[in-house]
């Protein structure tokens, strides 16, 4: 009986599907054949839709025939009768003279531009984050990567129907999230996750929380979608980047202008194409749609709700969908180009989560978020410096009653089946292991069992050691969740010396990043090197400047330190160390102190280092603090005090450093970087503990003998050991022009750079056998790079000028490779 009822159910469903008709087509101008984007189509009793940006549409209807009523501002209306036999239709509209608003039409400028100017001027009272002192709301988000094919083979035995349904509706990823957003005008916006479900994963995939799948605001300068910035259609300079046209007006209680916008400078600035519904009274956004059509089809819809008590249109619901397209236009998504089936960047989040750069040609990415329980001027005070996204403990363990009470979208039978299917796929394909590996690789590690190998330790090269071969890493949480053991061993083929490190890090409080570090190191260091202990750089497999250094000293250092994160943006370390310094013949050096020459000595130092990144975005979980987006400027400071007489310390001196890094990125992919660094030291300073200015020119007379790989912030024309300082300041500026688009895979980038350093050295006579100069007259160089010519390689040229200009041209000129291969 049960099978008979199932058979009847599917028979009725099949009959219903067969009774439906589909018509697709395109609306174009009869005058020039151009497509008419967002033309309004009314059909049936209440059916209404708009054409896509290419004038195309698809309608499903059940009647034998329907009439399409097509309207578009500036064109005569047209009715078209459609019957079930028709599959495709092209409708041509005749241009006409329209009269929207007497004031607007009488204006000499484009009436749509006049409306946009008023909307931009009104952002202060319409943008919730500008107009309101505070607000609070909850958000339900459902994110999935689906399969377009949802057909069920009804010829199969009914016992296999459920299996066929699961297979044909297979999803690669499915998650739900409930969160609370708190905004205060003086402290910004923070999101606290209340519940998180990720099908198939034991632990939440926190990285997915960083995706801007549903951008919060259309009022901002940049509209960020999946880690890609587009020009905002209501940015202050929007009229430079977009063209606008009035295509309709609505006749609701609060009428709106329907404004079509399209990119004006597509080759220079990434832009979207879409429509804005702007309130005719306040010029606030009531609704918006943005699209990209090309190798993929991307569509974003924004819906706003009017709250009379606050006199504001507030975001209510957002939907985002990506599916394969039919065009050849390059689309920028996930921070890079995308074509059918392939994400072009290897370091995007979707790639890391799915474990592959391939996406099924039938895949649909869909995200929906709904805001509810909105409260304005909330009295709840945000804690000082919260992370952008807070993930408390236990959010992935919420009961089903919590989800039923908070879901704003239906969780269907298909979703339940998808969750089961994803669970089986993740286990079968070992997806969690792939995520672990790719996340570790991004930090320069490769996990194998309980040990994470440090990729950067396998090999290096420099002028003193020659090839340096080694192995190193640290234990992971499989070994212990309370501490790690770490270390490395390395051997130089030229100096024939073994170096090593061994240590432990004890996790006192993972949530606040409070750790106790204990290390012993027997290795080499560069003369004049000042290491900021809390400076964080992106891992790169190849660090070019180190391959050119030839002058080192030996050190045996025992250190203990306490790390602590004051808040999401500020991290610090206090360290006590004792080092035994000795020379190794690469640079003969002795230090004169109180009438005694030292070539071996002990240094005991207390060091405090701090890193402040107030403009970056972070995700804070009970286990870690994850940077979602690098923001600038960022600040690093460090001070250390050497103490004589404690633990055998021979000298007393103070060293301090301060660095500011800033970067300005433009929508046209050009970028300007600034770095300012100041160092100061006083006391009994051996040359090992003063400062150099990051020289990177090999001490050879001929240009080709100096041919090597250029650094990123090094002085390419400054010779090694040429200058040392006990106080100095450096300024670097790099400007990368918009890459030259020659082919999809060949996009060289031209970089212009300039560097300046000034400094001094107070007591040169304490270093009687070392010959070096000071920077008191100011050192200048400028140059050019042409990067990404072939397999990450490029070329660099720099010239030295100013006070330290040398007599011959070849002495002032450097010509080198560049190599960019971040992992």
TrEMBL record:
Signal peptide start and end residues: 1-19
Top-level taxonomic group: Bacteria
Keywords: Signal
SUPFAM superfamilies referenced in this protein's UniProt entry, alphabetically: Carboxypeptidase regulatory domain-like
A Pfam family reported for this protein in Swiss-Prot or TrEMBL: DUF5686
Protein name, as recorded: DUF5686 family protein
